Amino acid sequence: MTGAVAAPRYLTLDVVRGVAVMGILLANIAAFALPAPAYFSPLAWGGHGTREIAVWLTTFVFVEGKMRGLFSFLFGASMLLVIERAQAGGANPVKVHLSRMAVLFLIGVAHMYFIWWGDILAHYALVGLVAFVFAGLKAEQLLAAALTALVATLLWNSMGLVGLIQAAPRDTPQAIQTWDLFAWGFGVPPADWIEGEIAAMRGHWTAQVAWRWEFLDGPLAFVKAVGPETLTAMLFGMWGFRSGFLTGAWERTAYRRVAVTCLGVAWTAYLLLGLNTIAQGFDQRWVYFASIVGSVPFRILGTIGYAALLILAIRPGGRLTERMAAVGRAAFTNYLGTSILVTAIFYGWGLGQFARWDRATIYLIPPAVWLVMLVWSKPWLDRFRYGPFEWAWRSLARLKLQPMRKPLPAA
């Protein structure tokens, strides 16, 4: 193997990744602070007065799915970047990718069971294995593959809606069980389910681990639920990298056109879906339709639109741009660190505030965590090559401790 090739970083990738890891907390805060069913439905927990419904609608229109999509988008682009750099450095790209995904999977599983149930890392590792198959395609081929995956996602998600509609009469034990299982994600499940989760999350750390061990189906559950959608976003991200969209190679007028068109269509569609969900009284069939089926094409439009808007906003050398880029360079550490910090606020091993705040109040937390990200990331990366968890991931994947501290400048 030849020596590693030094490659410049793409400022656009770092900044967009930084915004994604910050935005995903805004999307996930309800899953940190409230029982799981409240993530999609205000009726489940956290209040459903005018203020809480307004907060739900605002996050649904501007955040829901699109921040997760942006995170997946950047994962696909970064994966392709790592593969290309491995090839340029004379390394075996298959070995590099598989070792990275294996370590990511193990870290993700530990995160899922020991810290927070909503882990996405193990899921990314599994879907990333599939995405690797497409790594050799040209930009236009990646776009075609992404569009095909988008159609497959819509069909896959629609199958769940059919099952939910069929179970709605609840006229058989199986139908009742199916309806209640969907209620755990999109409606109001039996009270003892929610009470059990609240007791576990407010209890000792061991009680939380035991609850997750009993009720989580593991990382394969995420693959079955949102695997096609994640693959779609990753493929769009790979297209975005290879086409130059994510590296800032397009004309500003093109980014402006993409941002206005994609966000305009996405926000309008989400607003209509959200208002209809409210009008239907948050019936779990309509909650599922709005969040999982009807929003599928508009979610990726919103993701691409946000990426274009962020690239337009980048100002090389600007203080905020540099801070945001640092957050993105340490996105892995910021993602895991967020889970530790926020669960310390809401779980019993910390302050025990789980399910004690209403839906509107929990959104005071993300800005405070964003401030922490912006404050620590750049000073750390001024002195060190990687964030702490980035260093651990890289060292484990290569089975060799990687240099951490940057060399001191010459006198």
Task: Describe this protein's structure.
The protein has helices at 11-33, 50-62, 66-88, 93-114, 121-131, 139-167, 173-186, 191-202, 205-215, 219-242, 252-279, 284-293, 296-313, 319-329, 331-346, 365-383, 388-398. The chain contains 17 helices and no strands. The chain has one domain. Helices cover 72% and strands 0% of the residues. Residues 1-6 have low confidence and may be disordered. By secondary structure, it is mostly helical. The protein is globular, with a radius of gyration of 21 Å. Helix 1 crosses helix 14.
Q: Which key phrases capture this entry?
A:
single chain; 411 residues; mainly alpha; globular
Task: Profile the largest sheet.
Answer: none
Mean pLDDT: 95
The shape is: globular
Number of helices: 17
Q: Secondary-structure element order, as H and E?
A: HHHHHHHHHHHHHHHHH
Report strand %: under 5%
Number of strands: 0
The SS-based structural class is mainly alpha
Q: What is the alpha-carbon Rg in Å? A: 21 Å
Q: What is the domain total for the residues?
A: 1
* Helical residues, percent: over 70%
Distance between the termini: 33 Å
Low-confidence blocks of residues: 1-6
Question: What is the topology?
Answer:
Elements: H1 11-33, H2 50-62, H3 66-88, H4 93-114, H5 121-131, H6 139-167, H7 173-186, H8 191-202, H9 205-215, H10 219-242, H11 252-279, H12 284-293, H13 296-313, H14 319-329, H15 331-346, H16 365-383, H17 388-398
Helix pairs in contact: 1-3, 1-14, 1-15, 1-16, 2-11, 3-4, 3-10, 3-13, 4-5, 4-17, 5-10, 6-7, 6-10, 6-12, 8-9, 10-13, 11-12, 11-13, 14-16, 15-16
